[in-house]
């Protein structure tokens, strides 16, 4: 069961490092009929933190267990909240490996020492989303989606759709992976004049940011700031100033109010979609929506279209599917299985070969190079073309 408690060891570690770690665990910690995976992420106490990835993992865990678990055993996602403190990552990862005996890490990222602990213990990280070298240089990181790659997908699609001469991209100050990928996407779409506006993460008043965007006189604009409600606040500031320049986004950061705001405004827009987002075309997305309806009826997940949230759900869901193929699920058996996967398939991602490097220096290790063309209208995200495109390989798309 996906529950929360403070462990004595975690509390002690928290005091020692002036941080805190929250564990989702229960009395069956040592139950041989339970398969545990560890999810560690900044879920609170940080300007960029929010709970939805944890809630989405919980939804997938419940769906897995209600469908027979993993070969008759229950799946438990043990969650540690780092509260935005890098030192907590080490304490949490050690607890997951040494005491919880997780068979894999799930989602999140491998930065701040997690990768080193995982490699030493032989624990694979299934579907991390970080852009740091700790992930892309780690052969135990099975990357199916790379957050910063979404910036390139979004700008590439926007560049092709609107054929601008000048673009503005808004990003958090110092968020180099997103900024560089955004410029790469525009460049591959033939747009070289790109102004970057960097925003301090603690920003709450976005009216001055919109004033800077307007002063640049772009043909298109957009960006990525976190958490999702901050992107909504940025867009609301633009609408309040009647700034109607075409909007270019990816669904890396996407809450329901964002979709409603853009839809109600009628501003021309394009959105790169990481998971298809259409239940009539993609059975995996249909499963996601069905699970949300069943296990999150109160809509605790405010960002069901957010790229990180959907990836963490998919990480748990697909982990179970792969683990079911193994006669015995341990850290060693899952690690070796994952390292040999060269034809991983799900309809909401391109086929992935985890055994080779990706073709692009900015997105190695088979990052999710593919996305789907879409836009926001009529209160929802619309998939324009079910054929995936790639900003990195410069494939054509249909408008």
Automatic annotation (TrEMBL):
<dbReference type="InterPro" id="IPR051010">
    <property type="entry name" value="BCAA_transport"/>
</dbReference>
<dbReference type="Pfam" id="PF13458">
    <property type="entry name" value="Peripla_BP_6"/>
</dbReference>
<feature type="signal peptide">
    <location>
        <begin position="1"/>
        <end position="25"/>
    </location>
</feature>
<dbReference type="InterPro" id="IPR028081">
    <property type="entry name" value="Leu-bd"/>
</dbReference>
<keyword id="KW-0732">Signal</keyword>
<dbReference type="InterPro" id="IPR028082">
    <property type="entry name" value="Peripla_BP_I"/>
</dbReference>
<feature type="domain" description="Leucine-binding protein">
    <location>
        <begin position="34"/>
        <end position="355"/>
    </location>
</feature>
<protein>
    <submittedName>
        <fullName>ABC transporter substrate-binding protein</fullName>
    </submittedName>
</protein>
<comment type="similarity">
    <text>Belongs to the leucine-binding protein family.</text>
</comment>
């Amino acid at each position: 069961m996906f529950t929360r408690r403070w462990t004595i060891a975690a509390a002690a570690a928290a005091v020692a490092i002036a941080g805190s770690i929250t564990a989702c665990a229960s009395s069956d910690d040592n139950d041989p009929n339970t398969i545990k995976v560890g999810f560690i992420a900044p879920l609170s106490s940080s300007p960029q933190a929010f709970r939805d990835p944890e809630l989405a993992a919980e939804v997938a865990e419940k769906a897995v267990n209600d469908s027979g678990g993993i070969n008759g055993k229950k799946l438990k996602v043990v969650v540690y909240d780092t509260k935005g403190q890098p030192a907590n990552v080490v304490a949490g990862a050690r607890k997951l490996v040494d005491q919880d005996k997780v068979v894999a890490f799930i989602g999140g990222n491998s930065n701040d020492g997690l990768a080193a602990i995982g490699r030493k213990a032989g624990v694979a990280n299934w579907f991390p989303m970080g852009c740091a070298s700790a992930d892309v240089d780690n052969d135990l990181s099975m990357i199916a989606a790379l957050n910063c790659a979404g910036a390139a997908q979004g700008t590439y699609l926007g560049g092709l759709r609107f054929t601008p001469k000048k673009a503005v991209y808004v990003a958090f100050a110092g968020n180099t992976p997103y900024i560089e990928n955004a410029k790469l996407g525009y460049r591959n779409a033939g747009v070289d004049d790109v102004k970057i506006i960097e925003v301090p993460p603690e920003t709450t008043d976005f009216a001055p940011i919109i004033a800077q965007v307007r002063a640049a006189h772009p043909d298109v604009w957009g960006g990525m700031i976190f958490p999702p409600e901050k992107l909504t606040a940025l867009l609301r500031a633009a609408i309040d100033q009647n700034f109607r320049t075409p909007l270019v986004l990816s669904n890396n950061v996407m809450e329901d109010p964002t979709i409603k705001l853009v839809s109600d405004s009628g501003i021309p827009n394009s959105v790169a979609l990481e998971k298809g987002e259409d239940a009539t075309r993609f059975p995996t997305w249909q499963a996601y929506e069905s699970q949300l309806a069943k296990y999150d009826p109160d809509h605790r997940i405010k960002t069901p279209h957010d790229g990180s949230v959907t990836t963490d759900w998919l990480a748990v869901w697909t982990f179970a599917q792969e683990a079911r193929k193994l006669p015995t699920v341990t850290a060693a058996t899952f690690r070796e299985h994952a390292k040999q996967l060269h034809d991983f398939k799900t309809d909401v991602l391109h086929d992935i070969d985890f055994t080779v490097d990706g073709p692009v220096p900015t997105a190695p290790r088979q990052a999710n190079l593919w996305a789907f063309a879409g836009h926001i209208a009529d209160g929802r995200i619309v998939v324009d073309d079910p054929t995936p495109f790639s900003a990195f390989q410069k494939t054509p798309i249909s408008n």
